[in-house]
Amino acid sequence: MIWKSIKVGFHRLGSPPTFYRFCLLLSPWLWAGFAICTIIGLYYAFYVVPPDYQQSDTVRILYIHVPAAWQAMAGYVVMAILAMIALVWRIRTTEIMAMMCAPIGAAFTLICLATGSIWGRPMWGTWWEWDARLTSMLVLLFIYLGIMGLYAAFEDRRKGARVACILVLVGLVNIPIIHFSVEWWTTLHQGKTIRIFGESSMHYSMMPPLIWMTIAVKLMFGAALLDRSRNELLSQDRRKGWVAKKLLGKGVK
Amino acid sequence: MTPTRKKRLAVIGLMVLGVSTATAIALVALNDNIRFSIGPSEIVAGDFPEGRQLRLGGLVAAGSVSRDPTSLLVTFDVTDCIHDITVNFNGILPDLFREGQGVIAHGTLDANGMFQAHEVLARHDETYMPPEVARAMALAGGNEVCGEPIEDHIASVEAGY
Question: Which of A62, A140, A146, A147 is the most exposed place for a label (fewest CB within 10 A)?
Answer without folding.
Answer: A146
